[in-house]
Amino acid sequence: MAGAAALLFTGGLNWWFLAVFTFCSVTDVLDGYLARKHGICSGRGEVLDSVADFAVVLAMLAVLIPTVPWDPWMIQMIVLIASIRGVSLCIGTLRHGEVALLHTSLNKLAGLLLRLAPYAMLSLDLSVVVAAVCSVSLAGAVEDLAINVRSKSLDRNIRSYLDLRIPNSMKYGSMDERS
Predict the structure, then answer these.
(1) Kind and range of the H or E element at 23?
(2) Domain final residue, candidates 68, 91, 113
(3) Hey, how many other C-beta atoms are within 10 angstroms of the C-beta on 114?
(4) What string of pLDDT tens digits covers the 179 residues of the chain?
């Protein structure tokens, strides 16, 4: 989270921004790896990891939005994704009584693309980078919302919506349907 704060003082997409952003990305990967390796994973750690990721993304956007030539659709997509994630978080937290930030496969892929985006922005068309990141992020946000609406209990490490238990009558069909 200190890295997220440091990002705010980098001034735009420059070598200093990339250095701090790389530090944030590497420490994000290392903290989870080390926690799993040493058997010190916890619900609190999962939440802190998600909060730190959120802080880095907010800081990244706070620095890049004023300094990069965004098209209006790009900002609209970012706002849409943030809105869906906010609604999902509220619904999940109200339903389960705990912070409902999920580590689905789509969210992990979106996180990876977000981590690669500043580097890609240096050599690729901005609209291509934003379209790729936003497409996966939007799918992840919608999946989060669906999981938080439908799940009976909170599993922050659920891989996807498909991992929710489907009742046998729906999964295999009724006797009449199988005949």
Answers:
(1) helix 15-37
(2) 68
(3) 18
(4) 899 999 999 999 999 999 999 999 999 888 877 877 888 877 787 778 888 888 999 999 999 999 999 999 999 999 999 999 999 999 999 999 998 989 899 999 999 999 999 999 999 999 999 999 999 999 999 999 999 999 999 998 899 999 987 654 444 444 444 44
Evaluate whether residue 1 is within a structural domain.
yes
Residue 171 lies in a domain: no
Could you tell me if residue 153 is inside a domain?
Answer: yes
* pTM for the model: 0.83
Residue 179 lies in a domain: no
Cα–Cα distance, 49 to 104 (Å, whole number): 14
CB burial string 124-155: b at 16+ within 10 A, e below: eeeeebbebbbebbbbbbbbbbebbeebeebb
Q: Domain containing 49: what range?
A: 1-68
